[in-house]
Amino acid sequence: MQHILIADDNRDITDILSTYSRMEGFEPVVAGDGEEAIRLFNQFNPDVVLLDVMMPKEDGYEVCRKIRSKSNVPVILITARGEDFDKIMGLDIGADDYIVKPFSPREVMARVRAVMRRMTKATKEASSENILTVGSLEINLEEYTLHISGVKIALTKKEIETMWTLAMNPNKVFTRDNLLDSLWGFDYFGDSRTVDSHIKRLRSKLDIVEHPTWMIKTIWGVGYKFEIDEK
141 with 53: CB under 8 angstroms? Predict the structure, then answer.
């Protein structure tokens, strides 16, 4: 049976999410603070994680960072704060999705199904062809690493998935909605500003090493593409 780690200091929330998780076929593991969440994660190695941001001892952001240092398991952050900065920060540290309270437990389970589907798809792609090389760029989707001219670039899981999606389709224009659907899932409730902020942060990290033969190009009013200089 698949385990789902539910970390929130509100017992009412963990109870209702546990009930709905069992309906989806998961065995819930419940933590009331960040330290307990890390301990239970190490003990049960869950298949998906639901993290409240505002938890005692260690907040959800810190727990997510620690999980990402050792695992690519899907992580969904849950918080009462809905500002764009908080959402972007959560995605930037490696969360797969972000839900704002109050929420419907059915919505949470829909998000869980969506991130699980994307993880399964990424795993299948990695098992069939896990390394992509385009000029100075090398992406390893199995190890979730990216190198430019041999230099490893520290990227989040979502940033590497973004680069894989774009570089696998050179010169193809992706609309913002295309990228939302491909990377966050068709039932993600974000908007195009999420994509723009995500691409901006990704570019700043890639630009640490020069890469004159390729770039992520903005197609104004449409979206983005991975452009290769064939000169």
Answer: no
Would you say the pTM of this structure is higher than 0.70? Answer: no
2-122: CATH class: alpha beta
Distances in Å between the Cα of 213 and the Cα atoms of 9, 31, 41, 90, 151 are: 50, 48, 42, 31, 16
Count of beta carbons in the 10 Å neighbourhood of residue 101: 15
Query: What is the pLDDT averaged over residues 157-169?
Result: 88
| CA 216 – CA 220 distance, rounded (Å) | 12
Residues sharing a CB contact under 8 Å with residue 221, sequence separation 6 or more, in sequence order? none
Q: How many residues does the chain have?
A: 231
CATH 1.20.120.1460 fits 129-228, yes or no: no
Q: Percentage of the chain with pLDDT > 90? A: 35
Contact 5, 40 (CB under 8 A): yes
